[in-house]
Every structure is written in C-alpha cells, then in structure tokens.
Amino acid sequence: MLKVGKVTLVGAGPSGLDLMTLRGFNALQQADVVVFDRLVEQDILDSIPEKAEKIDVGKKNNHHPVPQNEINQILVDKAKECKNVVRLKGGDCFLFGRGGEECEYLLSNNIPFEVVSGVTSAIAAPAYAGIPVTHRDFCSSVHIITAHAKAGKKLEIDFESLVKLKGTLVFLMGLSSIHDVTQGLINAGMEKNMPAAVIENGTRSTQRKIISDLSNISQKVNELNFKSPSIIVVGEVCKLSNSLDWFSKQPLYGKTVVVTRPKERIGTLSEKLRRLGANVIEYPCIQTINEIDKDKFNIALENNYDYVVLTSPAGVSAMVEALEKVNKDLRVFYNCKFAVIGSGTAKELKKYGISADLMPEIYDSEHLGKLLADKLNSNSSVLILRAKDGSKELTKALEEKNISFSDIATYRTEYCCNKSEMLKELIKNNSVNIITFTSASTITGFVESIKLDKYTNFTALCIGKQTAKKAEFYGMKTKIANNATIDAMIAALLEENHHV
C-alpha cells in the first residue's frame, strides 16, 4: 500500500488570528500545503509557514473560480504526494462550508483526514454586536439557516416552521435575499415589529450593524449599502444590542492603523492594537538580514571589552547567530557587561539568560552613547554590535572622550513591501488614521514603496525623536511616544485618539 499524507480541515474562525483555535493554528504550522478560501483574514495567511505551498481556491458567493470538484481533487492529489495538507475554511468547516462533502471525497479515496472546528460567525458576529443568541428572558433556542439560494432558484426555507419555534433565527449568506427572508417570515405570521439585526464584517474592526424591526430592516440595508459578508439575526434578543455592545466601545474602534515594523517583529504591536478595536493593516517596510564579516568579527573578538552594546532586539539574535558562524558562543563575553538601548532589547537579551547592566532612561542612540561615555574613560573599550550604517549619535560621545570601540555590523536592513497600491488608495481616500514607525528606516522604506505626492493625510506615530525628525522631513504630522517602547506608542495613540 502506497504511503499517503493527511488532510486536516481547519475552521479559520470568523475573522483574524485571535479568533482561530490553538489547535487550528498548530495544524497550520505543520502544513506542507494550505488550500484556502476567500474569507480567511490576511494575518492568518501571513502565519502560514514560508515553506508551505499556498493554493487560493477563492470561493465566494455565486463565484467559484475553482469548482468544488477540483478542490476535492486538489486535496487528494496533494495528500498522495505524501504532503501534510490543511484545508483552511472561513468560520467552521461543517457549517454551510461543504466540509462534509470534502471529507466524503477523501474517504472514498482512502485519504486520512481530521477536522478542527472553528468559531462560527453565526455565534461570534452577534456576540460582537452585543446580541446573545440565547437568553432566558427571550428564548431557549437558536436556529442557523442558510439563506443562499442556488443560482436562478428561489429560497427553499420553511418559514412557517421557523416562526413556530419562537427562537433566535440566524441567517447566513442571505444579504442578497434579505427582502425574501423578512417577507417570508412576516407572511408566515411573525410580527412586523419583531427586532432584527444585520451585521456586516462581524468581529472585524470594520464591523457595522443595523438594529431595526422586521418590516424595515431590508430597506435600511439598501440605504446604508451593506455588503457581504453579512448575517441576519431575527429575535427578541436583538433588543439587547445597544446595552450589551462592548465591541464598538473599544477605544480605537473605527480607526485604521498601519503597522510598518519588520514582519518578524510586527505581531506584538498589531495584536495590542487589535485588542483595542483598531483596524490594523500590516505593511512591513523593512526586513532584517543577518550577516557578518567573519574575519573582521574574529579580529574584534580578540580584544578585551568592558561593554558589549546592543541597539535593537533584532541585534540580539543577530549577535548570537554571528557567534555561531565563527564557532563561538556567548561565553566569549564572560568578562563583559552589556549595555542596551531600551527595554525591548533588554527583554530579548534576557531570553539568553543575560541581564542588561546599562540602559539609558531615554531609549535612543544619543542617550545610550552619553551614558556609556559618562561611565567609561579613555582606558575603556566597547564592542558595538548593530545594524550596518547605524546612527553616528551613538559613537559621537565615545569619540569625544577617546573611548576605544569596535563597531561591527551583524545585520543589515532592506526595504520591502508588496501591498503598496492597496494602501496608497486607502491613504488617498483618507481611510487611514495612523501609521506607526518604530525607526527612521521604516519611514524610508514606507516612502520609497508608497511614493505619494504628499504625506499629510494621516498622523505618523513615532517611537522617538530621530524617527519623528525623519517623518517631518516628508511633511508628516507626527506624534511621538514618551518613551521608545511599544506600550508608550500605544499610550500616545490613545491620547491622540482622545483629542480627536
């Protein structure tokens, strides 16, 4: 019997990575092939391992660029290549997602499979709109119905039975049929003033909702130009929406924030912003490439240093990798103290069991250089391990006191971006409120990739004065964090939002 791979059906949940199950995420990290649909958020797609083959089958309402039978065959073919295949589907695999059909096809072809359930929008979207789908004072059941009719055919829904159930009704994929749904319920005997809701982009930071009654909600959907994906909720529980709406009360709800950090470090800031309700667009403008001149580094390591100086979290891992490349490890610095530019770098260094000995109160190169110069004298020696073409502010104070130093580049920064046209249009349309910059190089990368005529349509949230100076050079309106930390940037953003 030929060895075959395995297919894991994973429900991606209703929106981003934070609503995906841990088991689903872990399955994704082990994938050799990922076959995904349209309604999977970008941050989930970005978490797919680079080694994995990505196949976009792009299913959406009444438009299947890859027919279901071809999707089924892709799963089988990839499994027969002994690949670990993940079939990534929006929401839950088995709720109107044709997951059962895919499993039947896998079974008929003797392909092992597993199913990882996902959070369904039928429950999550109402919850994010302040609507509990069950409540003892209103109903004791919830019923989920697809309101998607096959092309050219009428809805086949037993409205009379649904009305008799007296439970909460949740209609998925029914926005284009909302008039037929509401009229069908009224014709079956439901009161015209029954509370109803339509939730667009449920659980996303771009979520919108309409709360009305059954007879008027269809008209309001048209007036406000609601789009798919949207769900329809009908029932007395919709009365609770305004009082229990916790999501739209988040401090950054309705704000669009662009994060430009390198991809490998983008997650912390993005996650914290999303938890505050922001619509986050990840737009990494730079990437760090670890590289070392081994001969120069070996010569530098022959000296005895008082301090090893690190100027970024990326520089910590770059240092460790550089030592590995010359067949050494951190023990070469057994007699040295460590100076770091800020708390983020100190935290990264601590992962390797080393506590920072020196850190300036203001986290930038100028203050780190001055602090070192105050601590040392002309008999001292310093090893600086940082990015190529690092700030001269660090070494200026050392030179003025004739303190010997070796300045070794352990990594370089490259500019990168692949979504510039999309973001450019959003900025031109005044749809971006804040763009975060954690270094002057992120500003350079942003400007070189986006190439706008002007940069005045948003606020540049900068981690420090040097970064802000670069932003102001391009005419950006700036807001500077009180300290060079992610938490300080978020505090400054909340302050900016409070004043708007």
What does this entry look like structurally?
Helix content is 35%, strand content 21%. It is of the alpha/beta class. The protein has 4 domains: 6-118, Tetrapyrrole methylase, N-terminal domain (Cobalt-precorrin-4 Transmethylase, domain 1, 3-Layer(aba) Sandwich), CATH 3.40.1010.10; 123-248, Tetrapyrrole methylase, C-terminal domain (Methyltransferase, Cobalt-precorrin-4 Transmethylase, Domain 2); 256-285 and 416-499, Rossmann fold (3-Layer(aba) Sandwich), CATH 3.40.50.10090; 289-413, Rossmann fold. The termini are far apart.
Short description:
This protein has 19 helices and 20 strands.
Which helices and strands, and how do they pair?
Blueprint: E1 6-11, H1 22-29, E2 33-36, H2 42-46, E3 53-56, H3 68-80, E4 84-89, H4 99-108, E5 113-116, H5 121-128, E6 142-146, H6 159-165, E7 168-172, H7 178-187, E8 195-200, E9 208-213, H8 217-223, E10 230-234, H9 241-244, E11 256-259, H10 267-275, E12 279-282, E13 286-290, H11 294-301, E14 307-310, H12 313-325, E15 337-340, H13 343-350, H14 365-375, E16 381-387, H15 392-400, E17 404-415, H16 420-428, E18 434-437, H17 440-450, E19 459-462, H18 465-473, E20 477-480, H19 486-499
Parallel strand pairs: 1-4, 1-5, 2-3, 2-4, 6-7, 11-12, 11-18, 14-15, 14-16, 16-17, 18-19, 19-20
Antiparallel strand pairs: 7-10, 8-9, 8-10, 13-17
